[in-house]
Specification:
By secondary structure, the chain is mainly β. The chain has no helices and nine strands. Strand 7 and strand 8 form a beta hairpin.
Length: 135
């Protein structure tokens, strides 16, 4: 199985705020893999699509959702933009990070470095107090 050097970089708009937390993101910018347009000797595409994987930024770091980003055409700078679903499948008031992998018929690339933090604003009911003790 061939593995590609992952050079796909994930960020959530605005691009200039890569280290900043983004609330209610609408788009994801991805720097395309160097293998984006490569073909094997038999004419088969080396890369068929990109896969975004989001995880919660908490002690569990649990996988939250994955989204096939397809294989959009990058711009002149080698970056493509994908619109996110209107309702992200995430819990409000929780921060997440995401990675992107390039996927092809022979396997997947290593994941990118984690994205900048992102989340969705919303209602959050307070957690119950830690306990009650009478003395």
């Amino acid at each position: 199985m061939r593995r590609w050097l992952a050079t796909v970089v994930f960020c959530i708009l605005p691009t200039w705020a890569q280290a900043q937390t983004v609330i209610n993101p609408h788009f994801v910018d991805v720097t395309a893999s160097p293998d984006h347009s490569a073909v094997k000797i038999d004419g088969t595409a080396v890369l068929t699509h990109y896969l975004l994987t989001a995880t919660a930024m908490n002690a569990l770091g649990a996988l939250v959702w994955t989204q096939d980003l397809g294989k959009p055409t990058p711009n002149a700078q080698g970056v493509f933009t994908v619109a996110l679903p209107a309702a992200l499948p995430v819990t409000a008031e929780t921060l997440y990070r995401a990675i992107v992998t390039a996927v092809g018929p022979d396997g997947s690339s290593d994941p990118t470095a984690p994205s900048n933090p992102f989340g969705v604003a919303g209602t959050r009911v307070p957690v119950a107090a830690g306990g009650v003790t009478f003395r």
